[in-house]
Design goal:
- This protein is α+β, with helices and mostly antiparallel strands.
- About 35% of the residues lie in helices and about 20% in strands.
- It has 2 domains: about 130 residues, Glutaredoxin; about 250 residues, Class I glutamine amidotransferase (GATase) domain (Rossmann fold, 3-Layer(aba) Sandwich).
- The chain contains 13 helices and 21 strands.
Length: about 525
Protein backbone atom coordinates (compact mmCIF):
# COMPACT_ATOMS: atom_id res chain seq x y z
CA UNK A 1 0.00 0.00 0.00
CA UNK A 2 2.74 2.45 0.98
CA UNK A 3 4.79 1.63 -2.13
CA UNK A 4 1.85 2.28 -4.45
CA UNK A 5 0.99 5.63 -2.78
CA UNK A 6 4.50 7.10 -2.99
CA UNK A 7 4.59 7.65 -6.78
CA UNK A 8 1.07 9.17 -6.65
CA UNK A 9 2.15 11.57 -3.90
CA UNK A 10 5.29 12.55 -5.80
CA UNK A 11 3.30 13.07 -8.97
CA UNK A 12 0.77 15.24 -7.13
CA UNK A 13 3.59 17.33 -5.65
CA UNK A 14 5.14 17.72 -9.09
CA UNK A 15 1.81 18.81 -10.57
CA UNK A 16 1.35 21.41 -7.84
CA UNK A 17 4.84 22.74 -8.50
CA UNK A 18 4.18 22.94 -12.24
CA UNK A 19 0.85 24.68 -11.74
CA UNK A 20 2.38 27.12 -9.25
CA UNK A 21 5.31 27.91 -11.55
CA UNK A 22 2.94 28.44 -14.46
CA UNK A 23 0.75 30.77 -12.34
CA UNK A 24 3.78 32.82 -11.27
CA UNK A 25 4.94 33.02 -14.88
CA UNK A 26 1.47 34.16 -15.99
CA UNK A 27 1.28 36.80 -13.27
CA UNK A 28 4.77 38.07 -14.14
CA UNK A 29 3.89 38.17 -17.84
CA UNK A 30 0.67 40.02 -17.05
CA UNK A 31 2.60 42.59 -14.97
CA UNK A 32 5.16 43.07 -17.74
CA UNK A 33 2.44 43.49 -20.38
CA UNK A 34 0.51 45.93 -18.15
CA UNK A 35 3.61 48.05 -17.48
CA UNK A 36 4.55 48.01 -21.19
CA UNK A 37 1.02 49.00 -22.24
CA UNK A 38 0.94 51.83 -19.71
CA UNK A 39 4.29 53.12 -20.92
CA UNK A 40 3.28 52.99 -24.57
CA UNK A 41 -0.08 54.64 -23.84
CA UNK A 42 1.65 57.45 -21.95
CA UNK A 43 3.90 58.16 -24.93
CA UNK A 44 1.55 57.48 -27.84
CA UNK A 45 -2.11 58.32 -27.35
CA UNK A 46 -5.06 59.92 -29.10
CA UNK A 47 -7.43 62.11 -27.12
CA UNK A 48 -11.13 62.02 -27.89
CA UNK A 49 -13.78 64.38 -26.59
CA UNK A 50 -16.80 62.12 -26.08
CA UNK A 51 -19.07 64.80 -24.61
CA UNK A 52 -22.18 65.44 -26.67
CA UNK A 53 -21.33 69.06 -27.46
CA UNK A 54 -17.54 68.56 -27.54
CA UNK A 55 -17.34 70.77 -24.47
CA UNK A 56 -13.71 69.93 -23.80
CA UNK A 57 -12.42 70.62 -27.33
CA UNK A 58 -10.98 73.89 -28.58
CA UNK A 59 -12.75 75.74 -31.37
CA UNK A 60 -11.27 76.10 -34.84
CA UNK A 61 -10.66 79.80 -34.13
CA UNK A 62 -8.43 78.95 -31.15
CA UNK A 63 -6.67 76.13 -33.00
CA UNK A 64 -5.99 78.56 -35.84
CA UNK A 65 -4.34 80.99 -33.44
CA UNK A 66 -2.20 78.24 -31.90
CA UNK A 67 -1.12 77.10 -35.38
CA UNK A 68 -0.44 80.62 -36.68
CA UNK A 69 3.10 82.00 -37.22
CA UNK A 70 2.54 84.33 -34.25
CA UNK A 71 2.70 81.25 -32.00
CA UNK A 72 4.53 78.71 -34.15
CA UNK A 73 7.51 80.96 -34.96
CA UNK A 74 8.04 82.38 -31.48
CA UNK A 75 11.58 82.16 -30.12
CA UNK A 76 10.30 81.91 -26.51
CA UNK A 77 7.38 80.05 -24.99
CA UNK A 78 4.16 81.57 -23.73
CA UNK A 79 3.41 80.94 -20.08
CA UNK A 80 -0.11 80.34 -18.78
CA UNK A 81 -0.49 80.30 -15.00
CA UNK A 82 -3.75 78.79 -13.72
CA UNK A 83 -4.06 80.11 -10.16
CA UNK A 84 -7.34 78.55 -9.05
CA UNK A 85 -8.21 77.32 -5.58
CA UNK A 86 -9.04 73.64 -5.38
CA UNK A 87 -12.40 74.47 -3.79
CA UNK A 88 -13.56 76.53 -6.79
CA UNK A 89 -16.20 74.77 -8.89
CA UNK A 90 -14.55 75.57 -12.23
CA UNK A 91 -10.99 74.64 -11.25
CA UNK A 92 -10.84 71.32 -13.06
CA UNK A 93 -12.53 72.65 -16.19
CA UNK A 94 -10.12 75.59 -16.45
CA UNK A 95 -7.10 73.34 -15.88
CA UNK A 96 -8.22 70.92 -18.60
CA UNK A 97 -8.81 73.88 -20.92
CA UNK A 98 -5.29 75.22 -20.27
CA UNK A 99 -3.83 71.77 -20.99
CA UNK A 100 -5.60 71.78 -24.37
CA UNK A 101 -3.92 75.09 -25.22
CA UNK A 102 -0.52 73.59 -24.38
CA UNK A 103 -1.23 70.38 -26.34
CA UNK A 104 -2.25 72.18 -29.55
CA UNK A 105 0.62 74.69 -29.35
CA UNK A 106 3.26 71.98 -29.94
CA UNK A 107 5.45 73.12 -27.09
CA UNK A 108 5.02 76.89 -27.51
CA UNK A 109 2.76 77.19 -24.45
CA UNK A 110 3.78 76.07 -20.97
CA UNK A 111 1.12 75.71 -18.26
CA UNK A 112 1.72 76.13 -14.55
CA UNK A 113 -1.06 75.17 -12.14
CA UNK A 114 -1.19 76.08 -8.48
CA UNK A 115 -3.58 76.45 -5.59
CA UNK A 116 -2.86 79.90 -4.12
CA UNK A 117 -4.10 78.82 -0.69
CA UNK A 118 -1.93 75.70 -0.49
CA UNK A 119 1.16 77.13 -2.19
CA UNK A 120 1.55 80.47 -0.46
CA UNK A 121 5.25 81.02 -1.24
CA UNK A 122 4.74 80.58 -5.00
CA UNK A 123 1.62 82.76 -4.86
CA UNK A 124 3.54 85.61 -3.24
CA UNK A 125 6.30 85.26 -5.81
CA UNK A 126 3.82 85.46 -8.71
CA UNK A 127 2.00 88.40 -7.12
CA UNK A 128 5.29 90.27 -6.84
CA UNK A 129 6.43 89.39 -10.38
CA UNK A 130 3.23 90.62 -12.03
CA UNK A 131 2.44 93.53 -9.67
CA UNK A 132 -0.95 92.05 -8.84
CA UNK A 133 -1.57 94.57 -6.10
CA UNK A 134 -1.60 97.22 -8.81
CA UNK A 135 -4.29 95.30 -10.69
CA UNK A 136 -6.80 95.44 -7.86
CA UNK A 137 -6.34 92.13 -6.12
CA UNK A 138 -4.21 89.67 -4.23
CA UNK A 139 -3.57 86.29 -5.82
CA UNK A 140 -5.08 84.10 -3.10
CA UNK A 141 -8.30 86.14 -2.99
CA UNK A 142 -9.29 85.89 -6.65
CA UNK A 143 -9.02 82.92 -8.97
CA UNK A 144 -7.39 83.96 -12.22
CA UNK A 145 -5.43 82.89 -15.28
CA UNK A 146 -2.24 84.80 -16.10
CA UNK A 147 -1.00 84.84 -19.70
CA UNK A 148 2.62 85.93 -20.08
CA UNK A 149 3.84 86.41 -23.67
CA UNK A 150 6.98 88.38 -22.81
CA UNK A 151 10.36 87.45 -24.21
CA UNK A 152 11.70 86.67 -20.72
CA UNK A 153 9.41 85.28 -17.99
CA UNK A 154 12.05 85.41 -15.28
CA UNK A 155 12.37 89.17 -14.90
CA UNK A 156 10.11 91.50 -12.95
CA UNK A 157 7.23 92.82 -15.07
CA UNK A 158 7.40 96.54 -15.85
CA UNK A 159 5.04 99.06 -17.42
CA UNK A 160 6.53 98.35 -20.83
CA UNK A 161 5.59 94.68 -20.41
CA UNK A 162 1.92 95.42 -19.71
CA UNK A 163 0.74 94.90 -23.33
CA UNK A 164 2.19 91.36 -23.28
CA UNK A 165 0.60 90.25 -20.00
CA UNK A 166 -3.09 89.55 -19.60
CA UNK A 167 -5.24 88.52 -16.65
CA UNK A 168 -8.51 86.57 -16.94
CA UNK A 169 -10.43 86.34 -13.68
CA UNK A 170 -12.99 83.77 -12.61
CA UNK A 171 -15.74 86.38 -12.84
CA UNK A 172 -14.91 87.14 -16.47
CA UNK A 173 -15.26 83.48 -17.43
CA UNK A 174 -18.83 83.00 -16.25
CA UNK A 175 -22.19 84.70 -16.51
CA UNK A 176 -24.75 84.57 -13.76
CA UNK A 177 -28.49 84.84 -13.36
CA UNK A 178 -30.66 85.23 -10.30
CA UNK A 179 -32.96 82.38 -9.39
CA UNK A 180 -36.58 83.39 -9.57
CA UNK A 181 -37.77 84.46 -6.15
CA UNK A 182 -34.30 84.13 -4.64
CA UNK A 183 -31.58 86.64 -3.94
CA UNK A 184 -28.79 84.14 -4.64
CA UNK A 185 -27.36 83.92 -8.15
CA UNK A 186 -26.29 80.85 -10.06
CA UNK A 187 -23.93 80.28 -12.97
CA UNK A 188 -25.63 80.50 -16.34
CA UNK A 189 -22.78 79.84 -18.80
CA UNK A 190 -19.02 79.30 -19.00
CA UNK A 191 -17.00 81.50 -21.39
CA UNK A 192 -13.52 80.30 -20.50
CA UNK A 193 -12.18 79.60 -23.98
CA UNK A 194 -13.57 82.84 -25.40
CA UNK A 195 -11.94 84.96 -22.69
CA UNK A 196 -8.62 83.08 -22.63
CA UNK A 197 -8.19 83.09 -26.41
CA UNK A 198 -8.96 86.80 -26.59
CA UNK A 199 -6.43 87.49 -23.83
CA UNK A 200 -3.87 85.21 -25.48
CA UNK A 201 -4.20 87.01 -28.81
CA UNK A 202 -3.88 90.40 -27.09
CA UNK A 203 -0.79 89.30 -25.16
CA UNK A 204 0.90 87.91 -28.28
CA UNK A 205 0.31 90.97 -30.46
CA UNK A 206 0.71 93.58 -27.73
CA UNK A 207 -0.87 96.60 -29.38
CA UNK A 208 -4.31 96.00 -30.94
CA UNK A 209 -5.00 96.64 -34.62
CA UNK A 210 -6.93 99.81 -35.50
CA UNK A 211 -9.83 99.89 -37.93
CA UNK A 212 -11.28 103.33 -38.58
CA UNK A 213 -15.08 103.42 -38.54
CA UNK A 214 -16.54 106.25 -40.65
CA UNK A 215 -19.14 107.29 -38.08
CA UNK A 216 -20.18 110.52 -39.82
CA UNK A 217 -21.52 108.54 -42.80
CA UNK A 218 -23.21 105.74 -40.84
CA UNK A 219 -26.58 105.43 -39.14
CA UNK A 220 -24.93 103.33 -36.39
CA UNK A 221 -25.14 105.53 -33.30
CA UNK A 222 -21.93 105.20 -31.31
CA UNK A 223 -23.35 107.09 -28.33
CA UNK A 224 -26.24 104.68 -27.72
CA UNK A 225 -25.34 101.44 -25.88
CA UNK A 226 -26.81 98.07 -26.77
CA UNK A 227 -27.19 98.66 -30.53
CA UNK A 228 -25.54 97.43 -33.73
CA UNK A 229 -22.45 99.53 -33.08
CA UNK A 230 -22.00 97.91 -29.66
CA UNK A 231 -22.29 94.42 -31.18
CA UNK A 232 -19.76 95.20 -33.91
CA UNK A 233 -17.35 96.88 -31.49
CA UNK A 234 -17.46 94.01 -28.98
CA UNK A 235 -16.98 91.41 -31.72
CA UNK A 236 -13.92 93.23 -33.08
CA UNK A 237 -12.45 93.72 -29.62
CA UNK A 238 -12.44 89.95 -29.10
CA UNK A 239 -10.21 89.77 -32.21
CA UNK A 240 -7.81 92.36 -30.74
CA UNK A 241 -9.12 94.91 -33.26
CA UNK A 242 -10.19 98.34 -32.00
CA UNK A 243 -12.81 100.14 -34.13
CA UNK A 244 -12.10 103.89 -33.88
CA UNK A 245 -15.09 106.14 -34.77
CA UNK A 246 -13.93 109.06 -36.91
CA UNK A 247 -15.31 111.76 -39.17
CA UNK A 248 -13.79 112.13 -42.59
CA UNK A 249 -13.26 115.85 -42.09
CA UNK A 250 -10.81 115.09 -39.27
CA UNK A 251 -7.94 114.28 -41.64
CA UNK A 252 -6.70 114.80 -45.19
CA UNK A 253 -5.72 111.15 -45.67
CA UNK A 254 -6.42 107.83 -43.98
CA UNK A 255 -3.76 107.41 -41.24
CA UNK A 256 -0.92 105.00 -41.93
CA UNK A 257 -1.67 103.01 -38.76
CA UNK A 258 -5.07 101.95 -40.12
CA UNK A 259 -5.44 98.19 -40.35
CA UNK A 260 -8.64 98.81 -42.27
CA UNK A 261 -11.71 100.98 -42.89
CA UNK A 262 -15.27 100.17 -41.84
CA UNK A 263 -18.13 101.63 -43.87
CA UNK A 264 -21.24 100.39 -42.08
CA UNK A 265 -24.84 101.27 -42.96
CA UNK A 266 -23.89 104.44 -44.87
CA UNK A 267 -26.72 106.96 -44.88
CA UNK A 268 -24.98 109.94 -46.48
CA UNK A 269 -23.02 109.98 -49.72
CA UNK A 270 -19.33 110.77 -50.04
CA UNK A 271 -18.01 113.97 -51.60
CA UNK A 272 -15.43 113.85 -54.38
CA UNK A 273 -12.68 114.71 -51.91
CA UNK A 274 -13.79 112.00 -49.49
CA UNK A 275 -14.07 109.42 -52.25
CA UNK A 276 -10.59 110.37 -53.45
CA UNK A 277 -9.33 109.80 -49.92
CA UNK A 278 -10.87 106.30 -49.85
CA UNK A 279 -9.46 105.44 -53.29
CA UNK A 280 -6.01 106.67 -52.27
CA UNK A 281 -6.14 104.41 -49.24
CA UNK A 282 -7.43 101.45 -51.27
CA UNK A 283 -4.55 101.77 -53.74
CA UNK A 284 -1.99 101.38 -50.94
CA UNK A 285 -0.43 97.95 -50.36
CA UNK A 286 -2.18 95.89 -47.65
CA UNK A 287 -5.23 98.15 -47.43
CA UNK A 288 -8.51 96.65 -46.20
CA UNK A 289 -12.12 97.80 -46.33
CA UNK A 290 -15.25 96.30 -44.78
CA UNK A 291 -18.54 97.51 -46.29
CA UNK A 292 -21.88 96.67 -44.61
CA UNK A 293 -24.95 97.94 -46.49
CA UNK A 294 -28.63 98.38 -45.84
CA UNK A 295 -31.14 97.30 -48.49
CA UNK A 296 -31.72 99.92 -51.22
CA UNK A 297 -29.61 102.51 -49.34
CA UNK A 298 -26.19 102.40 -51.02
CA UNK A 299 -24.99 105.97 -51.76
CA UNK A 300 -24.20 106.63 -55.42
CA UNK A 301 -20.49 107.41 -55.04
CA UNK A 302 -19.88 104.30 -52.94
CA UNK A 303 -21.94 102.20 -55.36
CA UNK A 304 -19.82 103.40 -58.28
CA UNK A 305 -16.62 102.55 -56.38
CA UNK A 306 -17.85 99.03 -55.62
CA UNK A 307 -19.01 98.53 -59.21
CA UNK A 308 -15.49 99.39 -60.43
CA UNK A 309 -14.28 96.41 -58.39
CA UNK A 310 -16.81 93.88 -59.63
CA UNK A 311 -19.45 94.10 -56.86
CA UNK A 312 -22.58 96.13 -57.62
CA UNK A 313 -25.25 96.60 -54.92
CA UNK A 314 -28.61 96.27 -56.65
CA UNK A 315 -31.61 98.41 -55.84
CA UNK A 316 -33.89 95.54 -54.87
CA UNK A 317 -35.04 93.62 -51.81
CA UNK A 318 -34.61 89.89 -51.38
CA UNK A 319 -37.83 88.12 -50.39
CA UNK A 320 -40.10 85.16 -51.01
CA UNK A 321 -43.69 84.27 -50.35
CA UNK A 322 -45.40 81.45 -48.49
CA UNK A 323 -49.09 81.37 -49.14
CA UNK A 324 -50.29 84.92 -48.64
CA UNK A 325 -47.33 85.86 -46.42
CA UNK A 326 -44.28 87.76 -47.60
CA UNK A 327 -41.05 86.54 -45.99
CA UNK A 328 -38.12 88.95 -45.73
CA UNK A 329 -35.90 86.75 -43.60
CA UNK A 330 -33.45 85.25 -46.06
CA UNK A 331 -32.32 81.64 -45.76
CA UNK A 332 -28.85 81.44 -47.25
CA UNK A 333 -25.82 79.20 -47.73
CA UNK A 334 -22.12 80.00 -47.43
CA UNK A 335 -20.46 79.58 -50.82
CA UNK A 336 -17.37 77.51 -51.51
CA UNK A 337 -14.26 79.20 -52.80
CA UNK A 338 -12.49 81.52 -50.39
CA UNK A 339 -10.13 79.67 -48.07
CA UNK A 340 -10.87 81.84 -45.03
CA UNK A 341 -14.51 80.68 -45.07
CA UNK A 342 -13.68 76.96 -45.42
CA UNK A 343 -15.29 76.09 -42.06
CA UNK A 344 -18.59 77.58 -43.33
CA UNK A 345 -18.70 76.06 -46.82
CA UNK A 346 -22.17 74.74 -47.71
CA UNK A 347 -23.51 75.50 -44.23
CA UNK A 348 -26.81 77.34 -43.94
CA UNK A 349 -27.78 80.48 -42.08
CA UNK A 350 -30.50 83.15 -42.04
CA UNK A 351 -30.49 86.95 -42.25
CA UNK A 352 -33.29 88.92 -40.64
CA UNK A 353 -34.34 92.40 -41.71
CA UNK A 354 -33.92 93.73 -45.24
CA UNK A 355 -31.33 92.51 -47.71
CA UNK A 356 -30.39 93.57 -51.23
CA UNK A 357 -28.66 91.41 -53.78
CA UNK A 358 -25.14 91.93 -55.08
CA UNK A 359 -24.04 91.50 -58.67
CA UNK A 360 -20.63 89.82 -58.51
CA UNK A 361 -18.64 89.65 -61.76
CA UNK A 362 -16.51 86.62 -61.03
CA UNK A 363 -13.90 85.93 -63.69
CA UNK A 364 -14.64 89.07 -65.74
CA UNK A 365 -11.79 89.67 -68.22
CA UNK A 366 -11.52 93.42 -67.60
CA UNK A 367 -11.21 92.81 -63.86
CA UNK A 368 -8.57 90.11 -64.37
CA UNK A 369 -6.52 92.53 -66.45
CA UNK A 370 -6.63 94.99 -63.52
CA UNK A 371 -5.80 92.18 -61.04
CA UNK A 372 -9.14 92.45 -59.29
CA UNK A 373 -10.82 89.23 -58.15
CA UNK A 374 -14.37 89.37 -56.72
CA UNK A 375 -15.77 86.17 -55.16
CA UNK A 376 -19.21 85.25 -53.81
CA UNK A 377 -19.34 84.42 -50.09
CA UNK A 378 -23.04 83.93 -49.30
CA UNK A 379 -25.99 83.07 -51.57
CA UNK A 380 -29.70 82.94 -50.84
CA UNK A 381 -31.86 79.86 -51.28
CA UNK A 382 -33.29 79.46 -54.84
CA UNK A 383 -36.87 80.33 -53.86
CA UNK A 384 -35.94 83.95 -53.04
CA UNK A 385 -35.94 86.69 -55.65
CA UNK A 386 -34.89 90.33 -55.86
CA UNK A 387 -38.05 92.47 -55.81
CA UNK A 388 -37.48 95.81 -57.61
CA UNK A 389 -40.91 97.33 -56.90
CA UNK A 390 -40.63 98.73 -53.37
CA UNK A 391 -44.27 99.87 -53.22
CA UNK A 392 -45.94 96.56 -54.11
CA UNK A 393 -48.16 95.34 -51.24
CA UNK A 394 -48.49 91.73 -52.40
CA UNK A 395 -45.24 91.05 -54.27
CA UNK A 396 -44.96 88.30 -56.83
CA UNK A 397 -42.06 87.33 -59.02
CA UNK A 398 -41.86 89.06 -62.41
CA UNK A 399 -39.51 87.59 -65.00
CA UNK A 400 -39.22 90.99 -66.65
CA UNK A 401 -38.45 93.25 -63.67
CA UNK A 402 -37.25 91.02 -60.83
CA UNK A 403 -34.07 88.97 -60.39
CA UNK A 404 -34.39 85.22 -59.81
CA UNK A 405 -32.53 83.40 -57.06
CA UNK A 406 -30.13 82.32 -55.82
CA UNK A 407 -28.87 85.83 -55.07
CA UNK A 408 -25.58 86.96 -53.55
CA UNK A 409 -25.62 88.59 -50.10
CA UNK A 410 -21.88 88.90 -49.43
CA UNK A 411 -18.72 89.02 -51.52
CA UNK A 412 -14.97 89.43 -51.15
CA UNK A 413 -12.63 91.41 -53.39
CA UNK A 414 -8.86 90.98 -53.73
CA UNK A 415 -6.75 93.61 -55.52
CA UNK A 416 -3.28 92.47 -56.47
CA UNK A 417 -1.38 89.31 -57.37
CA UNK A 418 -2.69 86.99 -54.68
CA UNK A 419 -1.33 83.89 -56.46
CA UNK A 420 2.21 85.25 -56.74
CA UNK A 421 4.24 84.53 -53.60
CA UNK A 422 6.45 87.54 -54.30
CA UNK A 423 3.56 89.99 -53.99
CA UNK A 424 0.97 88.03 -51.95
CA UNK A 425 1.66 90.06 -48.80
CA UNK A 426 0.99 93.32 -50.70
CA UNK A 427 -2.60 92.61 -51.75
CA UNK A 428 -5.58 94.69 -50.68
CA UNK A 429 -8.79 93.09 -49.46
CA UNK A 430 -12.44 94.12 -49.24
CA UNK A 431 -15.60 92.45 -47.92
CA UNK A 432 -19.09 93.63 -48.91
CA UNK A 433 -22.18 92.47 -46.97
CA UNK A 434 -25.63 93.59 -48.15
CA UNK A 435 -27.41 93.21 -44.81
CA UNK A 436 -26.72 95.41 -41.78
CA UNK A 437 -29.53 93.97 -39.66
CA UNK A 438 -27.53 90.86 -38.69
CA UNK A 439 -25.62 93.07 -36.21
CA UNK A 440 -28.76 94.10 -34.33
CA UNK A 441 -28.89 92.54 -30.82
CA UNK A 442 -32.32 91.02 -31.52
CA UNK A 443 -31.13 89.29 -34.72
CA UNK A 444 -27.80 87.80 -33.65
CA UNK A 445 -26.97 84.34 -34.95
CA UNK A 446 -23.82 82.48 -33.95
CA UNK A 447 -22.86 81.49 -37.50
CA UNK A 448 -23.24 85.06 -38.77
CA UNK A 449 -21.05 86.46 -36.01
CA UNK A 450 -18.45 83.75 -36.66
CA UNK A 451 -18.53 84.76 -40.33
CA UNK A 452 -18.14 88.43 -39.39
CA UNK A 453 -15.14 87.61 -37.18
CA UNK A 454 -13.62 85.48 -39.95
CA UNK A 455 -13.95 88.41 -42.36
CA UNK A 456 -12.31 90.78 -39.87
CA UNK A 457 -9.39 88.40 -39.30
CA UNK A 458 -8.97 87.85 -43.04
CA UNK A 459 -8.86 91.60 -43.63
CA UNK A 460 -6.07 92.14 -41.10
CA UNK A 461 -4.07 89.17 -42.38
CA UNK A 462 -4.97 86.48 -39.85
CA UNK A 463 -6.20 83.82 -42.25
CA UNK A 464 -5.48 81.06 -39.70
CA UNK A 465 -8.05 82.52 -37.29
CA UNK A 466 -10.96 82.33 -39.67
CA UNK A 467 -12.76 79.30 -38.24
CA UNK A 468 -15.77 78.94 -35.99
CA UNK A 469 -15.41 80.62 -32.63
CA UNK A 470 -15.76 79.34 -29.05
CA UNK A 471 -19.18 78.32 -27.81
CA UNK A 472 -20.87 79.16 -24.55
CA UNK A 473 -21.11 76.16 -22.26
CA UNK A 474 -24.47 76.58 -20.60
CA UNK A 475 -25.83 75.09 -17.42
CA UNK A 476 -29.28 73.56 -17.23
CA UNK A 477 -31.69 73.80 -14.34
CA UNK A 478 -33.90 70.76 -13.69
CA UNK A 479 -37.05 71.81 -11.81
CA UNK A 480 -38.07 69.18 -9.23
CA UNK A 481 -40.77 69.08 -6.61
CA UNK A 482 -39.65 68.51 -3.03
CA UNK A 483 -41.22 65.02 -3.08
CA UNK A 484 -39.29 64.15 -6.23
CA UNK A 485 -36.02 65.38 -4.75
CA UNK A 486 -36.71 63.31 -1.60
CA UNK A 487 -37.32 60.18 -3.69
CA UNK A 488 -34.06 60.69 -5.61
CA UNK A 489 -32.14 61.15 -2.37
CA UNK A 490 -33.61 57.95 -0.92
CA UNK A 491 -32.70 55.98 -4.03
CA UNK A 492 -29.13 57.31 -4.01
CA UNK A 493 -28.55 56.99 -0.26
CA UNK A 494 -30.48 53.82 0.62
CA UNK A 495 -32.02 51.72 -2.15
CA UNK A 496 -29.05 51.74 -4.52
CA UNK A 497 -26.44 50.79 -1.84
CA UNK A 498 -28.83 48.19 -0.41
CA UNK A 499 -29.29 46.66 -3.87
CA UNK A 500 -25.52 46.42 -4.35
CA UNK A 501 -25.15 44.79 -0.92
CA UNK A 502 -27.86 42.19 -1.64
CA UNK A 503 -26.31 41.37 -5.01
CA UNK A 504 -22.87 40.90 -3.46
CA UNK A 505 -24.36 38.61 -0.75
CA UNK A 506 -26.10 36.52 -3.40
CA UNK A 507 -22.86 36.12 -5.40
CA UNK A 508 -20.89 35.25 -2.24
CA UNK A 509 -23.45 32.62 -1.23
CA UNK A 510 -23.49 31.07 -4.69
CA UNK A 511 -19.70 30.81 -4.83
CA UNK A 512 -19.57 29.43 -1.25
CA UNK A 513 -22.00 26.65 -2.15
Amino acid sequence: MSDSSTPSSAKSSLNRWSIGSLAILQIASLLIITIACNFLCSQYFLKRDLSRGENYSLSEWTKGLLASPAVRDRATTIKIIVAFRRSTALTERVRVLADEYARHSHGKIVVERLDPVRNVDRSLQIAETYNLAAHGGVLNREDLVIIDARADHRVQATKDDAPYIRFVTHEQMVTYENDQGKSARRMNSFLGEDRITTALLSAIEGKPRKMYFLADKSDFQTEVPGNSWSVMRDALLTQNIVPVPVSMNEFDAIPDDAAGLIIAAPRYDFTKEEMSMIKEYWNRPRSNIMVILRARQTPDALRAFLREHGVTPRRDQILTTKGKNTIYRVDATFSNGMEFTRDFWSKSTSFDGSSSSLEVREGAEDLINRRISPTKLIESAPQYWGETNATMKNPSFSEVEDRPGPLTLAAAVIRGAANDDRFADQISRMVVISNASFLEPSALRTENMDFFNACANWLVGREEMSGTGPRKLGTFKLPLLSSQATLINRINLFFFPAGILLLSLFIWNARRA
